[in-house]
From TrEMBL:
Residues annotated as domain EAL: 31-287
Species per Swiss-Prot/TrEMBL record: Brevibacillus invocatus
Domain of life: Bacteria
First and last residue of the signal peptide: none
Section covered of the full-length record: 396 to 696 of 702
Record's protein name: EAL domain-containing protein
Length: 301
């Protein structure tokens, strides 16, 4: 009959459409499963924050930690450690992003305050925010509440938003200004990835530009990227914005950036994102602050 003919056709795999629909079905199934799992992830404490240090580098062997970026991971019971790319888009689609990001904000603030109380360095923890937060006028209240709850002073919280977020028609400049007035710092993440609209820089409460990895990745070889990055740095300086380069993996990349006076650096060259426990070894290391007096010594960082 027709059914069994269809079955044979599918099994044979010769029919491209059937093959595609099988793939799609599997994807849908996985998505539905993951969605259910995400519902429980928060309740079961499966989300964890990793922290990637950011450094001020004087030269390639002489650097001071100036902050950390909180990066979420999902310790899934059967799928293992999932990266943000594997679940943040789904969290956005399903609306869980609000709960998740509230948890991330609170956890990052709590952790930074705890480190400060244990004698750790006074520096901001930077948290990534998705665009949806900026459609909500009460987002500022959420931040105020979390800072009060955790006792973290506002200058030790940094928020990373992307250019794409600012370009969204629902984006609220008022929310950004309110956050600025609160004293938290705001960084434009993934700067230079294609949405660049320079007019956002002069009228907004932005404190820092973070140059995207796509521009720094091949900075040593690619002369047009060299020009773009050097221009971003010069512009940032004139606008009195801080600027940090991300994705720095090699000494050559680092030296190039230092040569054009970009001294704030984040990337695997200095450190990968670390679990809270692993980063504590760096935070509380005696020779954490490297100065000229320890010149010649090699850091374990
Ligand atoms: P991002 O904000 O641009 O974060 C930096 C990403 O680049 C991190 O990946 C980090 O591990 C990676 N990275 C840092 N240095 C290097 C390097 O030298 N080389 C290479 N190849 N990669 C480097 P991760 O943790 O997988 O995060 C990916 C993206 O996911 C982030 O990009 C951010 O947009 C998003 N994300 C992470 N955590 C959160 C979160 O808590 N909330 C939201 N909404 N998004 C998050
Ligand atoms: Mg970021
Ligand atoms: Mg980034
Ligand atoms: Mg990036």
């Amino acid at each position: 009959n027709a059914d069994s003919a269809m079955y044979e056709q599918k099994k044979s795999g010769k029919n491209g459409y059937c093959f595609f629909s099988h793939e799609l079905e599997a994807q849908m199934k996985e998505k539905v499963e993951l969605e259910g799992d995400l519902r429980r992830a928060l309740a079961f404490n499966e989300l964890i924050l990793y922290y990637q240090p950011q450094y001020y580098a004087v030269h390639a062997d002489h650097q001071t930690m100036i902050g950390v970026e909180a990066l979420v991971r999902w310790n899934h019971p059967t799928r293992g450690l999932l990266t943000p790319e594997q679940f943040i888009p789904l969290a956005k689609e399903t609306g869980f992003i609000f709960e998740i990001e509230t948890w991330i904000l609170r956890e990052a603030c709590r952790q930074m305050k705890a480190w400060q109380e244990q004698g750790g360095p006074l520096m901001p923890v930077w948290v990534n925010l998705s665009c949806v937060q900026f459609y909500q006028l009460n987002f500022k209240q959420k931040v105020v509440q979390i800072l009060e709850e955790t006792g973290l002073e506002p200058q030790y919280l940094g928020l990373e938003i992307t250019e794409g977020t600012m370009m969204d028609p629902s984006f609220s400049e008022d929310v950004l200004s309110a956050l600025d007035a609160l004293g938290v710092r705001i960084s434009l993440d993934d700067f230079g990835t294609g949405y660049s609209s320079l007019r956002y820089l002069q009228r907004s409460a932005i404190h820092r530009l973070k140059i995207d990895r796509s521009l720094t990745k091949n900075i040593v070889e690619n002369s047009s990227n060299q020009v773009i990055v050097a221009t971003i740095i010069a512009m940032a300086r004139k606008l009195e914005l801080d600027v940090i380069a991300e994705g720095i993996e090699t000494r050559d990349q680092l030296n190039f950036l230092l040569g054009i006076e970009c001294n704030d650096i984040q990337g695997f060259y200095f450190s990968r994102p670390l679990s809270a426990r692993d980063i504590e070894e760096v935070l509380f290391a005696k020779n954490h602050y490297r100065s000229s007096s320890v010149e010649g010594q090699h850091s374990t960082i």
